[in-house]
Amino acid sequence: MIGLGSDHNGFPLKQELLSFLEERGEEVRDFGTSSEAPVDYPDIAASLAEAIRDGLIERGVLVCGTGLGMAIAANKIPGVYAAPVTNVYTARKARESNNAQVITLGAQLVDVPLAFAIVEAWLQAEFQGGRSSRKVAKIRCLEARYSGSAVTAGLMGGRPC
Predict the structure, then answer these.
(1) Quick one: average pLDDT of 9-13?
(2) According to the model, what pLDDT value does residue 138 have?
(3) I need a labelling partner for 132 at 20 to 30 A (CA). Which of 33, 70, 94, 161 fits?
(4) Over the chain, what is the mean pLDDT?
(5) What is the pLDDT of residues 17-55, one digit of tens each?
(6) What total of structural domains would you count in the chain?
(7) Are 100 and 145 part of one and the same domain?
(8) Do 17 and 72 belong together in one domain?
(9) What positions carry a catalytic annotation?
(10) Rounded distance, CA 16 to CA 10, Å?
(11) Taking Cα atoms as reference points, which of 51, 49, 44, 52 lies closest to residue 10?
């Protein structure tokens, strides 16, 4: 299942993405917002990221004006990795190299066709492992060190962090 959320700035693009994902046959959970009335993006980002952390959804797409605030907020949830993307290449690499479960889009930066292409590329991509596994494990260790989170505390490839 894919989570989808936006603030008021990203609402029109979120609605387009909702239709796109449903037409693609994806099961989508909408985390809001439901209009262009002002809301605080950290609330939406946290709800979606917590659902990923808790295993309720597998991946998520968040939309705000630039994609930056949503990424910063989602990345505060231990075990969740969100990448702001503005093109197909970085969307694919976010998943293949960084194992990002969330991408964030800026409604002021990407148009609807580009947003569709970005989401499509990201959904088709899978984490490649290899050399990237060691690097992602180091990111988890940094997270454990600075957050004290039981979610990320532990080992790096069988070795202590």
Answers:
(1) 98
(2) 93
(3) 70
(4) 93
(5) 999 999 999 999 999 999 999 999 999 999 999 999 999
(6) 2
(7) no
(8) yes
(9) 64
(10) 10
(11) 44
- Containing structural domain, residue 152: 129-161
Cα–Cα dist 53/136, whole Å: 16
Tell whether 140 and 118 lie within a shared domain.
no
| pLDDT, position 155 | 47
- Do 158 and 123 lie in one domain? The reply is no
Residue 66, pLDDT above cutoff 70: yes
Residues 156, 77 share a domain = no
43-57 burial, b at 16+ Cβ within 10 Å, e below that, comes to: ebbbbbbebbbeeeb
Q: Are residues 41 and 117 both part of a single domain? A: yes
69 and 95 in a single domain? The answer is yes
Separation between Cα atoms, residue 80 and residue 72, nearest integer Å? 11
Assess whether the previous peptide bond of 152 is cis (omega < 30° from 0): no
